[in-house]
Design brief:
Blueprint: E1 5-11, H1 15-26, E2 33-40, H2 44-52, H3 56-59, E3 62-67, H4 73-81, E4 88-91, E5 97-98, H5 102-112, E6 118-121, E7 123-130, E8 136-143, H6 153-158, E9 167-170, H7 171-177, H8 188-199, E10 202-205, E11 211-216, H9 226-229, H10 231-251, H11 260-334, H12 338-345
Parallel strand pairs: 1-2, 1-4, 2-3, 6-10, 7-11
Antiparallel strand pairs: 4-9, 5-11, 6-9, 7-8
Length: about 350
């Protein structure tokens, strides 16, 4: 009997990360899966050495597919899907990880919701630093998209807020709407999510994060995240996808989704407006910070002046006290009998 889930792991010359990814998969409480490692034009011997170190139960589930020539990271997924046709599949790249109950809960959800084309879980960003040997040190964590409580086509049109590591996809629906577009250098997961959500609902498992999207503080393309190292490409591919749907709408040659292009255009205008508002907000905060600094400087100067005034008032009090003492002394002197005064004055 075929496994329930196919897990595609894309990798290229990152043995330390691949080792961590396979450990994440091996820790799953649900074990009815197979693993297809797509070695995208990397050192196959290196991959086999990592696999050799796995426990036998895990090794028996692994198939290695090597692309002699890389057609890009987005196209690499298709190499993994081409050798498997199980009910569900997940993309577990070599640099990410899962909670031990990720598969158990996502498989249960899709089993219970046959209308759903996929399901996503709450995801956590793990920021880390890369060591010289390729291993990573965790710096901090942040839950992703805390203001979202589900997946909607409306929100997805604005931006992709669901990374592949947090999704389990129903293969039959993916075959129907089309897989990742391998001609894209980035953003193929967002393009796929648009078509997936346009065709069917996608579930969401809220609560504790079950997927961990690792981000690294490096611009080295071989070790970093594409959202950082290829930020320009992400922006360009995003616009390319929007343009493609818009052209299809204008040409009225795409009967499957003739209005998606116009919706994406509106969403892009919204995104740009939001960025502009963020810049304005940042400017306002900068101005308020300057006002705050000026107020602090003014308050400091006033405190210094008040301190000086207190010193002057204290000195005046001392002078007044001395004057009052002299006045009391003179009054006592005036009240003495005249004979004593003459004696005191030597008369």
């Amino acid at each position: 009997m075929s496994p329930t889930v196919t897990i595609v792991v894309r990798t290229r010359n990152r043995p330390a990360m691949l080792t961590r990814a396979l450990a994440s998969i091996a820790s799953q409480s649900f074990d009815d899966y197979e693993v297809v490692i797509v070695n995208d034009a990397g050192d196959e011997a290196e991959v086999r050495e990592v696999v050799k170190k796995q426990k036998r139960a895990v090794r028996s589930k692994i198939t290695i597919v090597t692309n002699e020539v890389s057609n890009g990271r987005e196209a690499a997924l298709e190499s993994g899907l081409a050798v498997s046709h199980n009910r569900y599949y997940a993309v577990h790249d070599d640099d990410d990880s899962w909670h031990p109950h990720f598969l158990k809960k996502t498989v249960a959800y899709l089993d219970e919701h046959p209308e759903a084309g996929g399901v996503a879980t709450r995801c956590e960003i793990v920021r880390e630093r890369v060591r010289a040997d390729g291993t990573c040190i965790e710096i901090e964590r942040e839950v992703l998209s805390t203001d979202n409580y589900g997946l909607s086509l409306v929100d997805m049109m604005v931006e992709n807020y669901t990374p592949p590591i947090s999704q389990l996809i129903r293969r039959e629906v993916a075959d129907r709407v089309g897989h990742w577009d391998g001609s894209l250098q980035t953003q193929a997961d967002w393009d796929f999510n648009l078509r997936l959500l346009a065709a069917s609902p996608v579930g969401f498992i809220d609560g504790e994060p079950l997927a961990y999207w690792h981000h690294r503080d490096t611009m080295d393309a071989s070790l970093g995240n594409s959202v950082v190292t290829d930020a320009y490409l992400h922006k360009w591919d995003n616009l390319h996808i929007r343009d493609r749907y818009l052209r299809a709408m204008l040409a009225t040659e795409d009967p499957s989704s003739p209005h998606l292009g116009q919706a994406l255009l509106s969403a892009e205008y919204y995104r740009r407006m939001r960025e502009e508002l963020a810049r304005v907000d940042s400017g306002v905060h900068s101005s308020l910070n300057l006002v705050h600094v000026n107020l602090l400087n003014t308050m400091t100067a006033l405190h210094e002046q008040v301190h000086e005034l207190r010193g002057e008032v204290s000195a005046l009090h001392e002078q007044l006290d001395a004057g009052f003492a002299l006045q009391r002394s003179l009054r006592r002197t005036v009240s003495l009998p005249k004979r004593i005064l003459r004696r005191l004055l030597g008369r």
